Amino acid sequence: MHLFTIPPWINYSYFAAAALIILWRGDGRARAICAGVGVSIAASAYACRTWSCWGAGSPPLMVWRGLSEDVPVLMICLACAWRAERYWVLWASSFALLSLVTDLLTLTLGVTPWANGSASIVWTQGLTTTLLVGVWSGRPRARPASAPPIASRGRATS
What we know:
Blueprint: H1 8-25, H2 28-47, H3 61-81, H4 88-109, H5 113-136
Helix pairs in contact: 1-2, 1-5, 2-3, 2-5, 3-4, 4-5
């Protein structure tokens, strides 16, 4: 789904460039989230063209398709956020949750297709940007004082 003012190839090119950088420099968490978002983008690009899935019935097919794409991405983000040492994973989980909430609001409150599509693009771009920031920033979260120290490789801790 794409806005009519922004050509689809711009969004696809941005994600493709980000995916190449993530595959090159990213860790396992970034690669897993990138793969989930990539599958979601590929499914949405080939399943429906712009508003063709927005049927006259209730609930629209596009929203159910969006939910089926957003739930796995959120699950991947939450699995990666478990015991993560960097904050970007929490931001990625937040964008995935916002995407899911937008689809749920479309089902329950009748958000218009234009608003749903626009929000979907914004949340995907935010998630992609968060992945890039996470790959390029190397600063882990501060560990609480009560947490045990991480043992160095090859050294025995007493």
